[in-house]
Amino acid sequence: MTDDAIGPDNSLLIVDDDGPFIRRLAKAMEARGFAVESAESVNEGINRARARPPQYALVDLRLGDGNGLDVIAAIRQNKADARVIVLTGYGNIATAVNAVKLGAEDYLAKPADADEIYAALVRSPGDKVEPPENPMSADRVRWEHIQRVYEMCERNVSETARRLNMHRRTLQRILAKRAPK
Description:
Helices cover about 45% and strands about 15% of the residues. It is built from eight helices and seven strands. A five-stranded parallel β-sheet has the order 2-1-3-6-7, sandwiched between helices. A two-stranded antiparallel sheet has the order 4-5. Helix 7 packs across helix 8. The protein is globular and about 55 Å long.
Protein backbone atom coordinates (compact mmCIF):
# COMPACT_ATOMS: atom_id res chain seq x y z
CA MET A 1 0.00 0.00 0.00
CA THR A 2 1.38 3.40 -0.96
CA ASP A 3 0.09 6.90 -0.38
CA ASP A 4 -0.60 9.02 -3.49
CA ALA A 5 1.69 11.73 -2.10
CA ILE A 6 4.54 9.22 -1.91
CA GLY A 7 4.43 7.86 -5.45
CA PRO A 8 5.29 4.44 -6.87
CA ASP A 9 8.81 4.28 -5.39
CA ASN A 10 8.14 4.33 -1.66
CA SER A 11 11.63 3.36 -0.47
CA LEU A 12 12.78 5.29 2.61
CA LEU A 13 16.21 5.07 4.23
CA ILE A 14 16.46 6.32 7.83
CA VAL A 15 20.02 6.91 9.08
CA ASP A 16 20.34 7.76 12.78
CA ASP A 17 22.45 6.36 15.62
CA ASP A 18 19.52 6.38 18.06
CA GLY A 19 18.16 2.81 17.78
CA PRO A 20 14.88 3.30 19.69
CA PHE A 21 14.14 6.47 17.69
CA ILE A 22 14.72 4.63 14.39
CA ARG A 23 12.42 1.76 15.39
CA ARG A 24 9.57 4.13 16.42
CA LEU A 25 9.97 6.27 13.32
CA ALA A 26 10.21 3.25 11.00
CA LYS A 27 6.87 1.93 12.33
CA ALA A 28 5.26 5.35 11.90
CA MET A 29 6.58 5.73 8.34
CA GLU A 30 5.56 2.17 7.37
CA ALA A 31 2.04 2.99 8.59
CA ARG A 32 2.09 5.98 6.21
CA GLY A 33 3.01 3.80 3.22
CA PHE A 34 6.83 3.80 3.07
CA ALA A 35 9.04 0.72 2.62
CA VAL A 36 11.61 1.50 5.32
CA GLU A 37 15.23 0.48 5.65
CA SER A 38 17.39 1.78 8.45
CA ALA A 39 21.05 2.28 9.25
CA GLU A 40 22.71 3.28 12.51
CA SER A 41 26.07 4.50 11.13
CA VAL A 42 27.59 6.44 8.26
CA ASN A 43 29.20 3.30 6.86
CA GLU A 44 25.98 1.28 7.02
CA GLY A 45 24.03 4.19 5.48
CA ILE A 46 26.46 4.51 2.57
CA ASN A 47 26.37 0.76 1.94
CA ARG A 48 22.54 0.71 1.92
CA ALA A 49 22.42 3.78 -0.36
CA ARG A 50 24.72 2.05 -2.83
CA ALA A 51 22.99 -1.35 -2.68
CA ARG A 52 19.42 -0.02 -3.01
CA PRO A 53 19.30 3.75 -3.59
CA PRO A 54 16.19 5.09 -1.81
CA GLN A 55 13.69 7.56 -3.26
CA TYR A 56 13.38 9.16 0.19
CA ALA A 57 15.94 9.51 2.98
CA LEU A 58 16.05 10.92 6.47
CA VAL A 59 19.64 11.42 7.64
CA ASP A 60 20.96 12.56 11.01
CA LEU A 61 23.99 14.82 10.68
CA ARG A 62 26.00 13.65 13.66
CA LEU A 63 26.52 9.93 13.82
CA GLY A 64 28.85 7.89 16.00
CA ASP A 65 31.26 7.10 13.17
CA GLY A 66 31.17 10.36 11.22
CA ASN A 67 29.08 12.94 9.42
CA GLY A 68 25.69 12.24 7.83
CA LEU A 69 26.65 14.56 4.95
CA ASP A 70 28.72 11.65 3.59
CA VAL A 71 25.54 9.54 3.42
CA ILE A 72 23.73 12.35 1.57
CA ALA A 73 26.56 12.49 -0.98
CA ALA A 74 26.34 8.70 -1.50
CA ILE A 75 22.57 8.86 -1.96
CA ARG A 76 22.89 11.69 -4.50
CA GLN A 77 25.60 9.76 -6.39
CA ASN A 78 23.33 6.74 -6.78
CA LYS A 79 19.92 8.43 -7.15
CA ALA A 80 20.03 12.09 -8.16
CA ASP A 81 16.27 12.66 -7.74
CA ALA A 82 16.06 11.24 -4.19
CA ARG A 83 14.31 13.44 -1.64
CA VAL A 84 16.68 13.83 1.33
CA ILE A 85 15.73 15.40 4.65
CA VAL A 86 18.35 16.18 7.30
CA LEU A 87 17.37 15.67 10.93
CA THR A 88 19.65 16.81 13.69
CA GLY A 89 19.80 17.89 17.28
CA TYR A 90 22.73 20.17 16.53
CA GLY A 91 21.06 22.66 14.25
CA ASN A 92 22.91 25.73 13.10
CA ILE A 93 22.91 27.83 9.97
CA ALA A 94 26.29 26.62 8.67
CA THR A 95 25.34 22.94 8.73
CA ALA A 96 21.92 23.70 7.24
CA VAL A 97 23.53 25.54 4.32
CA ASN A 98 26.07 22.74 3.84
CA ALA A 99 23.35 20.07 3.88
CA VAL A 100 21.29 21.96 1.29
CA LYS A 101 24.37 22.46 -0.93
CA LEU A 102 24.92 18.70 -0.86
CA GLY A 103 21.36 18.10 -1.97
CA ALA A 104 19.16 17.94 1.13
CA GLU A 105 15.62 19.15 0.44
CA ASP A 106 14.84 20.18 4.00
CA TYR A 107 16.41 20.50 7.42
CA LEU A 108 14.52 19.57 10.59
CA ALA A 109 15.71 20.09 14.14
CA LYS A 110 15.13 17.41 16.76
CA PRO A 111 12.76 16.78 18.34
CA ALA A 112 10.63 16.37 15.22
CA ASP A 113 7.59 14.11 15.24
CA ALA A 114 6.50 11.64 12.56
CA ASP A 115 3.91 14.05 11.13
CA GLU A 116 6.51 16.80 10.60
CA ILE A 117 8.93 14.32 9.01
CA TYR A 118 6.24 12.87 6.73
CA ALA A 119 5.18 16.38 5.65
CA ALA A 120 8.80 17.28 4.83
CA LEU A 121 9.28 14.05 2.84
CA VAL A 122 6.21 14.49 0.64
CA ARG A 123 6.22 18.29 0.32
CA SER A 124 6.41 19.57 -3.25
CA PRO A 125 9.64 21.46 -4.01
CA GLY A 126 7.90 24.87 -4.33
CA ASP A 127 5.67 24.56 -1.25
CA LYS A 128 6.31 26.93 1.63
CA VAL A 129 6.59 25.60 5.17
CA GLU A 130 3.93 26.77 7.57
CA PRO A 131 5.27 28.27 10.81
CA PRO A 132 4.62 26.07 13.86
CA GLU A 133 1.40 26.72 15.77
CA ASN A 134 3.05 26.21 19.15
CA PRO A 135 6.76 26.98 18.87
CA MET A 136 8.95 25.97 21.78
CA SER A 137 9.56 28.65 24.37
CA ALA A 138 13.06 30.08 24.73
CA ASP A 139 13.34 28.30 28.09
CA ARG A 140 12.41 24.99 26.47
CA VAL A 141 14.91 25.48 23.63
CA ARG A 142 17.65 26.24 26.20
CA TRP A 143 16.66 23.16 28.26
CA GLU A 144 16.71 20.93 25.14
CA HIS A 145 20.17 22.22 24.21
CA ILE A 146 21.49 21.55 27.72
CA GLN A 147 20.02 18.02 27.62
CA ARG A 148 21.68 17.29 24.24
CA VAL A 149 25.08 18.46 25.45
CA TYR A 150 24.61 16.51 28.70
CA GLU A 151 23.87 13.31 26.74
CA MET A 152 26.73 14.02 24.32
CA CYS A 153 29.04 14.24 27.36
CA GLU A 154 27.75 10.85 28.53
CA ARG A 155 25.86 12.46 31.44
CA ASN A 156 29.05 13.92 32.93
CA VAL A 157 27.97 17.09 34.76
CA SER A 158 31.46 18.60 35.02
CA GLU A 159 32.23 18.13 31.32
CA THR A 160 28.80 19.44 30.33
CA ALA A 161 29.24 22.53 32.52
CA ARG A 162 32.66 23.17 30.97
CA ARG A 163 31.31 22.90 27.42
CA LEU A 164 28.34 25.14 28.21
CA ASN A 165 30.58 27.61 30.04
CA MET A 166 28.45 27.54 33.18
CA HIS A 167 29.04 26.74 36.82
CA ARG A 168 28.62 23.05 37.69
CA ARG A 169 26.16 23.76 40.53
CA THR A 170 24.01 25.93 38.28
CA LEU A 171 23.89 23.09 35.77
CA GLN A 172 22.97 20.59 38.50
CA ARG A 173 20.04 22.81 39.56
CA ILE A 174 18.82 23.05 35.96
CA LEU A 175 19.09 19.28 35.45
CA ALA A 176 17.17 18.61 38.69
CA LYS A 177 14.15 20.65 37.52
CA ARG A 178 11.36 19.52 35.21
CA ALA A 179 11.45 20.50 31.56
CA PRO A 180 9.83 23.89 30.90
CA LYS A 181 6.85 24.06 28.52
